[in-house]
Amino acid sequence: MKLGVYIINLDRSADRWAAVRARADEYCIDVIRVAATDGHELSQEDFRDVDWKGFARHGGRTILPGEYGCYRSHIKCLSTLLESDFDAALVMEDDIEITVDLTKRAIAILEATPDADVVKLFNHRSRGFLSVATSAFGDEIGRCLHGPQGSAACYVITRRGAGRALPFLRAMRFPFDVALERGWHHGSNVLTVRHNIVSLMSHSSNSQIGSRADYSQVKFVGPKRLPTHLLRAAEYFRRIRYALAI
């Protein structure tokens, strides 16, 4: 399998690129830098392919500039994969700690789940895990009943998966990590590992998307959040049905 390794990195974050590149070089892993979209340098009038009303209904808030940049950067990675000759790509944000066996474990995970389109390799939670396979390295792969699991900092996606998901993901109506997990919407077979196979670097605590205060400032309050609660309940049942269909 020919696996590309994409690292999403902002032009103004040269220190992050240097750190992740140094680790990749240490382990003889070829990485490709994908220049991230910097949402903080754009006005909302510059945002493209955004379903503002859909995001507000599902998210209960407006979009942060950093969120928009993150979304467009991941979409760029999927498009780049389809334009390449890779069979699959390991997509990482620049705060992931690269390990010596990362690419080998990612390939082994895809070999253990040949029908997988996307496998998340890092999550903030994995409750209600349903296992379907175990890789040669002992990594359990499956789906989770509970979610969203949080984070799109590291995942492996096949060419087939990118082709299936991209048409449904071009318009932003969720944060990218949530949109990626919604296999019931974009028709991809989305799986996850039970235990993360990577960790975050120390600089990950300095979020380039937004702080808790930033999220609080754009969050709706009172009756305006009622549609969000109802839609999230419906999404939760869709997620459970999708997980059980594994």
UniProtKB/TrEMBL annotation:
<protein>
    <submittedName>
        <fullName>Glycosyltransferase family 25 protein</fullName>
    </submittedName>
</protein>
<dbReference type="InterPro" id="IPR002654">
    <property type="entry name" value="Glyco_trans_25"/>
</dbReference>
<dbReference type="Pfam" id="PF01755">
    <property type="entry name" value="Glyco_transf_25"/>
</dbReference>
<feature type="domain" description="Glycosyl transferase family 25">
    <location>
        <begin position="5"/>
        <end position="177"/>
    </location>
</feature>
